[in-house]
Amino acid sequence: MDFRLSDEEEAFQSAVRRFGDRVLRPNEARIDAEKVIPPDVLAGMAELGLLAMPVPEEYGGMGASATLTELASEEIGRGDSTMATAVFFLLEAGWGYLLARHGTDATKKEVLPSVTAGKAFLGIATTEPTGGSDLARMRTTSRRDGSAFVVRGEKSFISGVEEAKSLGGGHLTLTRVEGGGFNFLYVPTRSEGITTQRFRNMGRMGISTGGLSYQDVRVPERYLLGEEGKGFEYAMEGFSVARTFVAAACVGAAERALETGMAYIKERPAFGQPLGKFEGIQFELVDLWTQVEAVKWQCRRAAWLLDAYTLKGDHSHRSEVDRAVAAVKLTAPPIAFECVKRVMMWFGAAGYTEDVGLERGLRGIMSYMVGAEGGLNIMRIILGRELLGKEFLPYK
Ligand SMILES: Cc1cc2nc3c(=O)[nH]c(=O)nc-3n(C[C@H](O)[C@H](O)[C@H](O)COP(=O)(O)OP(=O)(O)OC[C@H]3O[C@@H](n4cnc5c(N)ncnc54)[C@H](O)[C@@H]3O)c2cc1C
User: Fold this and answer.
1) Is 123 in the pocket of ligand 1 (CB under 6 A)?
2) pLDDT tens digits along 30-77
3) Cβ–Cβ under 8 Å, residues 374 and 241
4) Residue nearest (by alpha carbon) to ligand 1 atom 47
5) Confidence grade of residue 163 (pLDDT, cut at 50, 70, 90)
6) Do 190 and 210 reside in the same domain of the chain?
């Protein structure tokens, strides 16, 4: 067991941290206020190789390991604590990986180079107005018609709807097949028959969330991922990868909050001494730091497992991977939320202002608590299934 990062990993981590300090932090308030990630920020990410990092070099990516991508996600969550940039990053990393693994050559050549260059957006569309947790009951269908699939239905709360329309690109879209099974299809947002809607969120304002309505949208068969009818399995594989990067972004946001808090409590006087001298504050810091440190290493282990098995197409350790990923998606967002909340309280009234900016982090991280990339209880259900067996699933 060796916990050291390689020289290459350390150098890349430092480069992304510098990018976070010099580009993301100064833009954070603007990203939140203007509800968009500025094009020069995306261009900077593309230049560093941060867009859809695990995509192989032949399609414009870095062919990065999950470990390297996890490290980058930590840094992006630290740089832009609103989570908008982190979401953009991790969706493309997770679902770009999946398209590269299961997409047809023609689709990969057509779609991935623009995604890695920041000239198109790639996301995931599984959630529907009737629910996102119980995916097996989704209603959107795809019916084969010659050399195309005809998609009909509605998706809801989908990240990057506006970006995919304005930049170009689309979403890997889970659809039900008549007679059983699911097709996972890349659906370009500009396809004929698609209408979009933007929702008004409370946080991570720099990336849109919205609805997609499909009125008999014809999707060429080359956009099908893997085998017909097997889409559910591919979607679950993509979730394992993307959820690890979600947790990593939360670790970065938590570390940033604690660093901000530490700097403050070393200086801010109360009752004749710095706040940090009071055990009531210091012990809180120590407890939070210990939890963040634990989940950080859990995240890195989850990424290591993905590299060792999933990214090699080896699903023999599925249970171990599922446990590791569900555990970090369950624990990282609440810990990050708690760190930001506590630091806000150390700041007193100033913590409640937009100027200090902690509230932006609180609003962004909350998206991972309510459901983005799977609700916390869904992680508990996965872990319960893994610990007790499928017969203990709380539903049929
Ligand atoms: C900002 C944001 C961005 C998102 N982006 C995307 C995206 O890009 N693509 C996409 O497909 N989806 C996206 N989602 C949707 C997300 O995947 C769903 O919110 C999530 O899957 C939960 O679905 P739901 O919101 O319909 O809640 P529901 O499924 O209705 O569940 C409601 C609550 O009940 C809990 N719950 C559900 N079943 C059980 C159970 N059996 N036992 C106990 N508790 C349970 C859930 O955890 C949740 O807290 C996004 C969500 C948000 C908030």
Assistant:
1) yes
2) 999 999 999 999 999 999 999 999 999 999 999 999 999 999 999 999
3) no
4) 375
5) very high
6) yes
Q: What ranges make up the beta strands (E) of 28-80?
A: none
Per-residue confidence (pLDDT) for residue 41, from 0 to 100:
97
DSSP state of 268: -
- The β-bridge relationship of strands 182-188 and 194-198 is unpaired
What whole-number distance in Å separates Cα of residue 205 and Cα of residue 242? 20
Q: Do 131 and 248 fall within a single domain?
A: no
**Secondary structure string (H, E, C) spanning 228-247:** CCEHHHHHHHHHHHHHHHHH
Is residue 1 included in any domain, yes or no? no
Protein residue closest via CA to atom 48 of ligand 1:
375
User: Which tokens go with 271?
Assistant: 């009752």
Beta bridge partners of residue 148, listed in sequence order? 145, 220
Which residue range is the domain that position 172 belongs to? Answer: 122-223
Please indicate whether residue 140, judged by its CB atom, sits closer than 6 Å to ligand 1. no
pLDDT digits (tens, 9 = 90+) for 350-391: 999 999 999 999 999 999 999 889 999 999 999 999 999 999
Cβ 153 under 6 angstroms from ligand 1: no
Same domain, 148 and 41: no
Is 175 part of a structural domain of the chain?
Answer: yes
Q: How far is CA 39 from CA 36, 44, 197, 273, 322, in A?
A: 9, 9, 22, 45, 36
Q: What is the pLDDT of residues 201-247, one digit of tens each?
A: 999 999 999 999 999 999 999 999 999 999 999 999 999 999 999 99
The torsion angle over the Cα atoms of residues 362, 333, 85 and 318, rounded to 10 degrees, is -170
Q: How far is CA 146 from the centre of its chain?
A: 35
69, 245 Cβ separation under 8 angstroms: yes
